[in-house]
Amino acid sequence: KNQVEQSPQSLIILEGKNCTLQCNYTVSPFSNLRWYKQDTGRGPVSLTIMTFSENTKSNGRYTATLDADTKQSSLHITASQLSDSASYICVVRKRGSYIPTFGRGTSLIVHP
Amino acid sequence: GAVVSQHPSWVICKSGTSVKIECRSLDFQATTMFWYRQFPKQSLMLMATSNEGSKATYEQGVEKDKFLINHASLTLSTLTVTSAHPEDSSFYICSATTQEAGGYTFGSGTRLTVV
Fold this sequence. Notes:
The complex is a heterodimer. By secondary structure, chain A is an all-beta fold. Chain A has strands spanning 4-7, 10-14, 19-25, 30-38, 45-51, 56-59, 62-67, 72-77, 86-94, 100-102, 106-111. In chain A, strands 2, 4, 5, 9, 10 and 11 form a six-stranded mixed β-sheet that branches. Chain A has a five-stranded antiparallel β-sheet with strand order 1-3-8-7-6, with no helix packed on it. In chain A, strand 6 (56-59) and strand 7 form a beta hairpin. The N and C termini of chain B lie far apart (37 Å). The radius of gyration of chain B is 13 Å and the shape is globular. Chain B has no helices and eleven strands. The interface between A and B is medium-sized, with 23 and 24 residues.
């Protein structure tokens, strides 16, 4: 069983709408959690990084939340744009380890 | 911010030949680099972890004699796909981290097509 579970697996929304992606993890002990955006045929690009003490972090129209008690994170995208169409990957780092644990990603498609 | 440069971005090679992919950390020293493989519409699969100056640690099922990884300096790691076959065609991505970085910076990926 993957230690980082993302949902939904895929999502289609209309341009201008908001959406929220979920990431639940069991990785322990926890060090940090990052959300990445991966465009097709490109390497992942970091959107946010969150440590244990952080609850919310924003990067433009992207807002990530973290509940370390329930081991849940979300990525909220506001006023979606066509360029937001991509795969969004949740990556959790275990304290004391360099090896990341990846979620399988959420594929987001934004339609005009 | 931290930048990882990966080259080439795409390569087409004949079956049986070898291909080398480079991954460079441009503005930081990467103590650890990772190599991933990604098939269409699938998540990244970790192939191996390399620390500067030591042998790479390969994930189960990854042939170390086929995928040669060299991490000779703190800014450069290379992946050589030896005797490539069409089934090796894939998207290969590297990432780097440091003890201070806390996260992972990815290269832009290399699309390998073996014909």
